[in-house]
Amino acid sequence: MSTVLDSLSGIVGERWVRTAGPALDTYASDGLPTINSPPRAVVIPGNRDEVIAVVRTLAAANVPFVARGAGTGLSGGAVGNDASVVIALTRLNRIISVDTVNRRATVEPGVVNARLSDATRPHGLHYAPDPSSQAACTIGGNVAENAGGPHCLKYGVTSNHILELEVVLPDGELITLGSPAGEPWGPDLVGLFVGSEGMFGIATRITVRLLPIPGSIRTLLADFSSVRQAGEAVSAVIASGIMPAALEMMDQSCVQVVEASIYAAGYPTDAAAVLLAEFDGESEAAVDAESAQIAQILQANGARSVRTATTAADRARLWQGRKKAFGALGRISPDLVVQDAVVPRSALPDVLDEIAAIAKRYRIRVSNVFHAGDGNLHPNLSFDGRNADERRRVEEAAGAIMEACIAAGGTITGEHGVGSDKLRYMPLIFDAETLTVMRDTRLAWDPAGLANPGKVVPIHACREWHAGGRARKAVA
Ligand SMILES: Cc1cc2nc3c(=O)[nH]c(=O)nc-3n(C[C@H](O)[C@H](O)[C@H](O)COP(=O)(O)OP(=O)(O)OC[C@H]3O[C@@H](n4cnc5c(N)ncnc54)[C@H](O)[C@@H]3O)c2cc1C
Q1: Does 378 reside within a domain?
Q2: Do residues 233 and 301 lie in contact, with contact meaning Cβ atoms separated by under 8 Å?
Q3: Helix axes 48-60, 2-12, angle to 10 degrees
Q4: By CB atoms within 10 Å of each CB, which of 23, 170, 298, 430 scores lowest?
Q5: Is the CB of 148 inside a 6 Å radius of any atom of ligand 1?
Q6: Number of folded domains in the chain?
Q7: Per-residue CA distances from 464 to 75, 407, 452 (Å)
Q8: Would you say the C-alpha torsion 21, 339, 424, 78 has a positive or negative sign?
Q9: Boundary residue ending a domain (88, 106, 125)
Q10: Strands (E) located in 124-262
Q11: Same structural domain, 268 and 371
């Protein structure tokens, strides 16, 4: 390994290769505190050519690697081990071009999500996918996770906004997928790469679609005296046929924590749950009419009050509370597991009841803040990682929540990916044949199994798939 590290230093400069314990600790986990594993080394290339040379060097020495953006992932995806090298892409942070006529931008992978819309705002354009972590997460990480966000209800998740990708394959070869014009031909390899969680290589250039900033926006805050009613109101809103730009829910536990923090947004702390609904479009009159109609539906479904934000500052304050809720939860415990699952919207009330029962059973405080319009739940489990018993109860409660979501017809992730954390649940939702196709697809991109090994789909078929879930036959 020392020869490899010398070669890496030769490529990027000694300053950008980290091997010391404290430096490696910085990269030992992502946003999920239950997985902690320092890599053998971290290399921080400064441009695409250095990424290619680094990957080629590692491939020649048969050393596994893990691409890493901002490390805000919540499934342990950007974490390596003592045999692997983390390739951090944060120095590749240039917005290469903004084409206002064709409404697209080409960026390096380390560009922070929110910086892209900051740069295009003067042109009346924005990049629509808006993960709540957008002040920190990178476009490369968003591509790898197929990230969502509050406004993805109307505008679609990352995969709907990626036109072209330049990718360094795990053997160091450089390829281009898709086209800037966005017209697909042949198999949709951009679609395949988006959401591949670092298994297929490293995205080094990303061309994204930009959308006009809507001319008119209304944000409603509705509060409820029961979580069940709020869940039923979500179904009623969607059933009305009016598509909100965003429809988010927070339960009382979350609201109280946010209101006690610097992100206080004026949410009523005695409410069992609040809903944030946003409507946008070009015509003021149409947006007003839609939001008035939805306000009526919310009231008919038990909302105690519905407030409309009237100014941009008001709206920003309501959204700040929602987007910073995970951070605010840091007030109540040293550690937080943010879970991610999807259930059919109609199942929301029952599943939320079940999650409350699981929290009680395992004596873990669970706070819910989530993309309700998509049925994309984020139960947040607060705990103290220094306490082994609490750690065990969190693991078991998280598993029980996943099983409840699957039993309700849902699935194990909506946007945070499988990473390492959800690997164990894969056989619960995919049969052996499907897992085999996933494994073979992965091997087609990465025959040597060097890119982010041990995540998402095991490289080598597991006999336990045979016994697990809906598996029908062994694949080994
Ligand atoms: C407070 C908070 C709120 C969040 N809210 C949301 C939300 O609303 N919606 C949402 O979807 N997610 C959310 N997340 C999760 C996380 O921010 C996203 O998954 C994000 O896309 C990760 O980006 P990153 O740059 O931090 O990637 P990392 O965590 O560094 O990496 C994530 C994965 O991407 C791979 N990867 C990174 N860069 C590349 C690249 N250039 N090429 C190939 N693979 C690469 C890594 O190997 C890893 O598997 C939230 C996280 C936090 C902490």
Answers
A1: yes
A2: yes
A3: 170
A4: 23
A5: yes
A6: 5
A7: 22, 21, 22
A8: negative
A9: 88
A10: 125-126, 162-168, 174-178, 202-209, 211-212, 216-224, 246-251
A11: no
Q: Tell whether 153 and 202 lie within a shared domain.
A: yes
Residue 260, domain CATH = 3.30.70.2190
Same domain, 239 and 340: no
Residue 327, CA distances (Å) to 25, 83, 132, 320, 397 in order: 21, 32, 10, 11, 21
Q: Is the CB of 128 under 6 A from ligand 1?
A: no
Query: In this structure, are residues 445 and 170 in contact, taking their beta carbons and an 8 Å threshold?
Result: yes
| Domain finish residue from 68, 88, 108 | 88
Contact 96, 117 (CB under 8 A): no
Q: 141: Cβ below 6 Å to ligand 1?
A: yes
Residues 184 and 258 in one domain: no
Contact assessment for residue 363 and residue 397, using Cβ atoms and an 8 Å cutoff: no
Task: Compute φ and ψ for 223, nearest 5 degrees.
Answer: -125, 150
Q: Which domain holds residue 298?
A: 216-326
Q: Is the dihedral of CA 263, 141, 44, 32 positive or negative?
A: positive
Please report whether residue 164 resides in a domain: yes
Q: What is the pLDDT of residues 290-323, one digit of tens each?
A: 999 999 999 999 999 999 997 899 999 999 999 9
> Does the beta carbon of 77 lie inside 6 Å of ligand 1?
yes
Q: Which residues of the chain have pLDDT under 50?
A: 461-476
Phi, psi of 345 (to 5 degrees): -55, -35
Report the nearest atom of ligand 1 relative to the CA of 158.
Answer: 11
Structure tokens at 388: 């082994």
Same domain, 246 and 348: no
| Model pLDDT, residue 336 | 96
Indicate whether residue 203 lines ligand 1 (CB < 6 A). yes
The residue to mutate among 68, 127, 174, having the most atoms of ligand 1 within 8 angstroms of its beta carbon, is 68
Confidence at residue 2, expressed as pLDDT on a 0 to 100 scale: 87
Q: Is the CB of 42 under 6 A from ligand 1?
A: no
CA of residue 145 to ligand 1 center, whole Å? 6
For residues 76, 81, 85, 90, the Cα torsion angle rounded to the nearest 10 degrees is: 30
In this structure, what CATH number is given to the domain that contains residue 403?
3.30.70.2740
Q: Which residues contact 340 (CB under 8 A, 6 or more apart)?
A: 74, 75, 376, 377, 378, 412, 413, 414, 415, 416
- Does 340 lie in the same domain as 316? no
Say if residue 99 is in the same domain as residue 203. Answer: yes
For 246-292, how does the pLDDT look when each residue is reduced to its tens digit (9 = 90+)? 999 999 999 999 999 999 999 999 999 999 999 999 999 999 999 99
Ligand 1 atom, smallest distance to 140 CA: 41
